[in-house]
Amino acid sequence: MNSVLIKEHKRNIEIIWYDSTTTYFETFNREGYKKPGYSKDGKFKEDQIVIGMATDSNGIPVHYKVFPGNTADANTFIQFVLEMQKIYQIKNITIVADKGMSVNKNIRFLEDKGLNFIISYRMKTGSKLFKEFVLNQENYIHSQTGLMYKTQEIASLYRNGRNNGKLRKRIITFSKKEQKKMLKIEKF
């Protein structure tokens, strides 16, 4: 199916969206990939598997991979991308992923492979300087939809603080609508 879609120019896999999730089993047989792990469904005593999946810009799955149920989401990423590159001979790609994939080893992997990426970043895990930059109201651009944003270019650093020669561009967004929604959730 993938080959047919590509041939007919109905599929663009230069940009893919990656995510992983869990699915649980109500069973007494613990075998294969079924393992107890962090359950997104709140089923902490049930065996589960982790599924990583990439979709194209139309939301059509490009590739999936099953992992043992005790695999952390962030630990699915590198194996998945390597397998996908091998199978589909992908060289130039942009990977979009959520903050669950935003860990140092995944970012380093993408930079080392020369892959483009857009990955959410957790403000609460950022440095003091990053938080100050985000909270400083200067230089935000206000859109007509109520979204505010600004950008920041930073040097990518190795763990010891040495510059690795690569630049990252951060796009910081803020929405009053989202803020109100999050404040309501926190009150529960």
Automatic annotation (TrEMBL):
Domain of life, per lineage: Bacteria
What GO terms are given for molecular function? DNA binding; transposase activity
Q: What InterPro entries does this protein's entry cite?
A: IS1634_transpos, Transposase_11
Give start and end of each Transposase IS4-like domain: 13-181
One Gene Ontology term from the biological process aspect of the record: DNA transposition
Indicate what this protein is called per its UniProt record. Transposase
